[in-house]
Amino acid sequence: MHGFQSLISDCELDDLAYVGPYFTWWDNQGDNPIGKKLDSAVVNGAWGQFFPNSFASFETCGVSDHCRCSVSLSHQVHTARRLFKFFTYLGDSPKFHSTVQQVWDAFEPLYHSRSALFLYHKKLKKLKFSLRSLNQEKYGDIPKRTREAFDALCDCQNEALTSPSAESFAAVSEAID
């Protein structure tokens, strides 16, 4: 450990400011859990000059016993559009082909284009809303339920790392199951 600390000092590295739970690792033992701050983000002086508002964010991540770390270069929050994901199990639905056919046949562009690729793109954009509805109707929105279960697991892990106790680690084990 002294060698590592000496290396950090010789390279003039400093811990980057961070947000998140105090502990970044735990041993997943139910009887006598142990949590430690093992992970950090280190930067040099030049980094601080180029990215003065940067910070590390530690987040519980579900399957690992370490928190994941992401580094933000500024405090600006970027919002992203929700991407469309096609789930292969939708193709097995009895309504899949009729849904696609109905949307495909009903599409009439507002103006005529010579580009077949443009028309194909527009039809696909119209189709995604019907496929999202089919996913929710037939399968109960599995991605949403999966995300909710993952978020609940991360909340339990965050609680265990913030306020370690036998109960909080038991809740993590239950959420993992």
From TrEMBL:
UniProt xrefs under InterPro entries: Endo/exonu/phosph_ase_sf
Top-level division of the source organism's lineage: Eukaryota
PANTHER family: BNAC02G09200D PROTEIN, OS06G0205337 PROTEIN
Protein name: Uncharacterized protein LOC104720687
SUPFAM superfamilies listed in its UniProt record: DNase I-like (SSF56219)
Species assigned in the record: Camelina sativa
